Automatic annotation (TrEMBL), chain A:
Family to which this protein belongs: Belongs to the ABC-3 integral membrane protein family.
The keyword Cell membrane belongs to this UniProt entry's keyword annotation: yes
Membrane-crossing residue ranges in chain numbering: 34-54, 61-78, 90-110, 137-155, 180-208, 220-241, 247-269
Record's protein name: Metal ABC transporter permease
SUPFAM superfamilies: ABC transporter involved in vitamin B12 uptake, BtuC
UniProt main location, coarse: membrane
PANTHER family linked: ABC-TRANSPORTER METAL-BINDING PROTEIN, METAL TRANSPORT SYSTEM MEMBRANE PROTEIN CT_069-RELATED
Keywords: Cell membrane, Membrane, Transmembrane, Transmembrane helix, Transport
Localization: Cell membrane
Domain of life: Bacteria
Topology in the lipid bilayer: Multi-pass membrane protein
InterPro entries reported in the protein's UniProt record: ABC_BtuC-like (IPR037294), ABC_TroCD (IPR001626)
Length: 296, 293
């Protein structure tokens, strides 16, 4: 049943899930989830520009372009917030939509040029996980290893930065540079994943596993591990489900698997779950009622 | 003639989105609009699956429901302790994924392909006409006019309430204003605006027209009326400018409209009247002169 190609896709999707789960957890706690969304959209013009300059579909070159524009977008968002009265939501929205617009303009130009016709750059919008090949995996596993290593090495510093930036500064940590590193890792995750699940669904992989893990734990180390596990599980499970029937595209199924996990956690998690909260509220009401009865 | 219809459609998108966008920016809900513009796809696909037609009215209803659903779900997650950005992210990516999946499963061979929904094709607008009370106009223009009318009506009726609840929600609550109703009514309008514009500029680039001109207006003005006018003006300028730029470079019109809006925003950001770079420089030199004297 596990044909060669499916196996590669399975491994790739799980690796990607681990990377985005790990990174997404940090981004989530920094309240930067939607910045990741903007960066994912902003990778599109970079890919198109790289193709227009080099006229070939070499993955590393396209990825380089994507990294440059995605990083630029994060900078611009910060710049707009710092230098005007616009709030973060507006800044993110502006950068996201304008970069995506530029991306579409360039993509149309690429598609009309003679060499661009078969470039398949459109795949970057929705992703083509099912066509992942062994060569893509080398690149994918390389960057995933880098992301995981960085997360492990800088775990303590990032933890401090997230929960008490002032204290971190006080003991001499280069907070700005640490933040930059986190952004760089997020961008790298996005750029790695774009080919598989596409620009728009990539942000889901950064946000949903982290939000799910948050439902289960208050501890950072446990949350991060769970987030990575949820990401990997969604990737693997989504790939398997989508291989059952043609027409079930892999990207959306992966996202929907992640969402189902979130939904289950939302209702049934022992700490933050809706059911637990309702039960607690009932108990409180009961207690209050009893006290009232006793008091009167 | 066709060119004129494309320009009219673009300008109508600019005006309608510019109008709605102002309150989105002021209420700090720009990213909810982004979410709605994605989930509208889900509503449209559901409407198609249920009715098996691509009728504008059903699409509008489906999109309206999807928009309210999005706003509602985000609210529910948030009130249960999940932070706002993550709530928005979880809801819209899920519904968008569901929408994309449903399209590939059930609506693959009709006009409803995903790329069209996302990017629109304003160049085809003039060929799809509809006659009503003896007037023949492109369908997109009819739809945009209807939504614009709805928007203006809403603003005229609820202008005061909207203003108070935007700038001072606590005061609005103490006055007994129907805040919840206003919120969801406004969200419904945003979804309608998105659907009406989606045929011409596509669901994703609607966000550009909703957020960018209004943000530009926000930078340019200190009162809500000036902001409304400048936002609509920037919307029209982006639409018309975008059309001619697209013609010049022979590329996507919708993409170019968003790009032009971004360009205008950038210029205003750099040279705006109150705190732009030029003004700051002039202030600096003024101070310098005073010091020298």
């Amino acid at each position: 049943m596990l044909s060669g190609n499916l196996l590669w896709v399975l491994v790739g999707a799980s690796l990607l899930g681990i990377a985005s789960g790990l990174n997404g957890a940090f981004a989530f706690l920094q309240k930067q989830s939607l910045v990741g969304d903007a960066a994912a959209h902003s990778a599109l013009p970079g890919i198109a520009i790289a193709f227009l300059i080099f006229q070939q579909k070499d993955l590393p070159l396209l990825m380089l372009g994507a990294i440059i524009t995605a990083t630029l977008s994060v900078y611009l968002i910060q710049g707009i917030i710092n230098r005007s009265k616009l709030k973060s939501d507006a800044a993110i929205g502006i950068v996201l939509s304008v970069f995506f617009g530029i991306g579409i303009v360039l993509l149309t130009i690429v598609n009309q040029s003679s060499s661009g016709n078969q470039s398949g750059l459109n795949d970057f919008i929705f992703g083509k996980a099912a066509t992942m090949a062994r060569s893509d995996l080398v690149w994918l596993s390389g960057s995933v290893t880098l992301i995981i290593t960085t997360c492990l090495v800088f775990y303590k510093e990032w933890k401090l930065m997230i929960f008490d930036a002032t204290f971190a500064k006080g003991i001499g940590l280069p907070v700005e540079r640490l933040r930059l590193l986190l952004t760089a890792m997020t961008v790298l995750t996005i750029v790695t994943g774009i080919q598989a699940v596409g620009v728009i669904l990539m942000s889901a992989m950064l946000i949903i596993p982290a939000a799910t893990a948050r439902m289960w734990s208050d501890k950072l180390n446990i949350m991060i591990i769970m987030s990575a596990l949820f990401g990997a599980f969604s990737g693997a499970c989504g790939t398997l489900i989508s291989s059952l029937k043609t027409g079930l595209s892999t990207g959306p199924i992966i996202v929907l698997t992640a969402s189902s996990l979130f939904l289950v956690s939302y209702f049934f998690s022992p700490k933050q779950g809706l059911l637990v909260k309702i039960r607690q509220r009932r108990q409180l009401e009961k207690q209050a009622l009893e006290q009232e009865v006793q008091g009167s | 003639m066709n060119e004129i219809w494309v320009l009219v459609t673009g300008s109508l998108v600019g005006i309608t989105c510019g109008l709605t966008g102002v309150f989105l920016i002021l209420r700090k809900m720009a990213m909810i609009a982004d979410a709605i513009s994605h989930t509208v796809l889900f509503g449209i696909v559901m409407a198609f699956i249920v009715t098996q037609t691509l009728n504008g009215v059903w699409m509008m209803i489906g999109a309206g429901i999807a928009g309210i659903l999005t706003a509602y779900l985000v609210q529910v997650l948030q009130s249960n302790g999940l932070q706002e950005d993550a709530s928005i992210g979880v809801v819209f990516t899920t519904l968008f994924a569901a929408g994309v999946l449903l399209i590939t499963l059930f609506a693959g061979n009709v006009h409803l392909d995903v790329e069209h929904v996302l990017m629109g094709e304003i160049a085809f607008v003039p060929w799809n006409t509809w006659t009503f009370v003896g007037i023949t106009m492109p369908k997109a223009v009819w739809m945009l006019l209807f939504v614009l009318l709805l928007n203006i009506l809403f603003l005229v009726v609820f202008y005061k309430e909207l203003k108070i609840s935007t700038f001072d929600p606590v005061f609005a609550m103490s006055l007994g204003l129907p805040l919840v109703f206003l919120h969801y009514a406004f969200m419904t309008l945003v979804s309608f605006t998105t659907v009406a514009a989606f045929d011409s500029v596509g669901a994703v680039l609607v966000v550009a027209m909703l957020i960018v001109p209004a943000s530009t207006g926000y930078l340019l003005s200190k009162s809500i009326k000036v902001m409304l006018i400048s936002s609509m003006a920037v919307g029209i300028m982006s639409a018309i400018g975008g059309y001619y730029f697209a013609k010049l470079f022979d590329t996507s019109i919708a993409g170019m409209m968003a790009t032009t809006a971004g360009l205008i925003f950038m210029l205003v950001f750099l040279f705006r009247p109150y705190e732009g770079l030029l003004v700051k420089k002039r202030k600096l030199t003024n101070i310098h002169e005073i010091v020298v004297k």
